[in-house]
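Ticket #173: bound-state structure for NAP.
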Amino acid sequence: MKVCIYNAISIDGFIADEQGDTSWVNDVKAYEKELSKNSVVIYGRVTYEDLVALEQFPFENIKNVILTSKPKDFDYRVAEFTDLKPEILIKQLVFQGHENILIAGGGLTNSTFLETDLVDEIIVDIHPIILSSGVKLFDDLELKVNLELLKTKKLNDGIVQHRYKIVREEESK
Ligand SMILES: NC(=O)c1ccc[n+]([C@@H]2O[C@H](COP(=O)([O-])OP(=O)(O)OC[C@H]3O[C@@H](n4cnc5c(N)ncnc54)[C@H](OP(=O)(O)O)[C@@H]3O)[C@@H](O)[C@H]2O)c1
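RESOLUTION: The complex was predicted; output attached.
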C-alpha cells in the first residue's frame, strides 16, 4: 500500500491564493502521470467545488472520493462522498483492493491525512511564483514531520518536482 499527497505549490508554500485561484498551476501532464499510477484519488469538498467550476470533475479513469461532513448532500453517481475518518477510509479502500492512493488536497484535507501517520510520500510541483498569502499546503497543522528527498525532477515552464518520503519517528531514531 502507498499513500501519497500531491499538490502544486508556489515557492512560498501556497496551493491557492486568498480567492482560491489556481490559474497559475501548470503541471497537468505531470499530474495525469501521477494519477495514472493510482486507483483512487481523495480530495476535500472545497477542492471538489473548484473542480466542478473549472469543469475538471471528476478525474477520469480513477475512483474519486470526496471528504465532507455532509455526504448526503451530494450526488453519488460519479464519485463517492464520505465523512469517514481518514484512517478508517484508507483501511476501507485497502480492504477493497486499492494499493496506491493519491491525496489531492486541499490544505485542510492534506493535514487531516498527514496527521494519521498513514501517508508515505509527499510530492510537490513547485511553480515559479510567490503568492504571499492564500491556502497553505498543510492548513492548521501542528506537527513537525521529517522528510527524506527521494527524487527531484525539472518539469516544463520552470516547475520543479520534489518527491519526499515521510520519515517515521522510529526510523529517525
Ligand atoms: N495547487 C493544488 O495542487 C491544489 C490542489 C487541491 C486544491 N487546491 C486548492 O485548495 C483550495 C481548497 O483547500 P481547502 O483547504 O480550503 O479545502 P479542502 O481541503 O479542499 O476541503 C475542505 C473540506 O473538506 C472536508 N473535509 C476535510 N477533512 C475532512 C474530514 N477529516 N472529515 C470530513 N470532512 C473533511 C470538509 O468539507 P465540509 O465543509 O463539506 O464538511 C472541509 O470543509 C481550493 O482553492 C483549491 O482549488 C489546490
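RESOLUTION NOTES: Residues 7-8, 15-16, 20, 22, 25, 43-47, 50, 67-70, 83, 86, 104-109, 112, 135, 139 surround NAP (CB under 6 Å).
TICKET STATUS: resolved
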